Amino acid sequence: MFQLKTKFPENFLWGGATAANQLEGGSDVGGKGLSVSDVYIFDENTPKEHWADQWHLMTHRQVEEAQDPTSKKYYPKRHGVDFYHHYKEDIALFAEMGFKCFRMSLAWTRIFPNGDELEPNEVGLAFYDSVFDELKKYGIEPIVSLSHYEMPLHLATEYGGWVNRKLIDFYVRFATTVFNRYKDKVKYWMTFNEINCVKHHPYVSLGVVEENHPHIEQAKFQGAHHQFVASALATKACKESNPEAKVGCMISYQLLVPYSCDPDDIQKTVEKQRESLFFSDVQARGYYPAYTARMLADKNVILEVEPKDEQIMREYPVDYVSFSYYMSSAISAHPEKLEGAVGNLITGGIKNPYLPTSDWGWQIDPKGLRTALNQLFDRYQKPLFIAENGLGAMDVVEEGDLIQDDYRISYLRDHIKQIKEAITDGVNVFGYTSWGCIDMISASTNQTSKRYGYIYVDQDDMGRGTKRRIKKKSFHWYKNVITSNGEELD
Q1: Could you please report the per-residue DSSP string of 116-182?
Q2: Where are the membrane-spanning stretches (predicted)?
Q3: What are the catalytic residues?
């Protein structure tokens, strides 16, 4: 009756994860348009502590300047690490590691440059045909995010972003186009990357410039509602195109724990966790949870919902739940009295004295991944996929192209051990893609030197370098992990 599972499933999907806006480059070729991520700058003269500031707040002035072709500022995500021209070389390296899958995203702006066109850009579609064909050559399963912080900038500047209901139709046209085009090449899809991050950075998630919205909470949740409807309609379109395909949601899951046993800390943690899991609750269950009414009332938010919205959401929930996990966060009802965890970009939170901290202030909690897997599986009883997990660090190239990234190996090893523990707990987790399997542009700080990959790219924060790819020590370690199906971690 009961079967204790002590090993990773035989068909477990091992791989790595990327995003087009951080990886591809090639923004000036193939008819690609500008995305919301293409307006972020990097300035090496700006103090390090301010590099992530623009991630949370974008202004009209910054957006307008980014569209000026005479601007002399450096926009790293327009350049990425030039996967656009190196994809065959990079995929061959993934194959050498033994990847079973590769999580990637489509640049919406390669296919619909402005987002509101009636017909797609064939050059962009053909590029992804080539990428998928190259992956197939090595038996690597693509797992594709439709929208990973790369909605067309035009939809933000001309329509006001996802607050505008018209974006549902634009998104569904894009989704239907790629579902039909790649139905024989892609089995696994995700509708929106880290959809719950609309709470923290509405510009890159929703195309919403905060200075346009004196009631920003209203804009965030109205935009989220439109994304929920769009996700359900996209799921419907995907099933009509290929009934065997699987569609998932994707959230950023920063495990939240009470700082103390103070009842106020416990209640505040419940409230914060609900705000985070609200998004996967809706997409996985297909309806708004009971706590929605009070949560929105406390924020003075009144959603505009059309009659058929709730019906389509209920009829087309997602097939699986995917998430990113980098850290946990301690929550207090009285944070002003305690030391904050400054590196926890998503929830902030209180510094946990039991946990070590990365170079960027992220608190490292491998056991929290086991807890997160159990919480999510208990909550949804749907298959889980770990879409992101990794350590950003400064890597040094030694003589002979040696990169001794034992710190990265240690981080990943400790987390993979906890995935195995969760599988023994009974959790159905079918894949793991560590974040940034090849070095690319950091989402939050726009650096290249904040590196996550098994593959080093010779490029500095201002884009200078040869783009040469170099295998790190972790490359060979992860290859052994995959070959042994997670049994050999040392």
Answers
A1: --SS--HHHHHHHHHHHHHHHHTTPEEEEEEESS--BHHHHHTT-GGGSTHHHHHHHHHHHHHHHHS
A2: none
A3: 194, 388
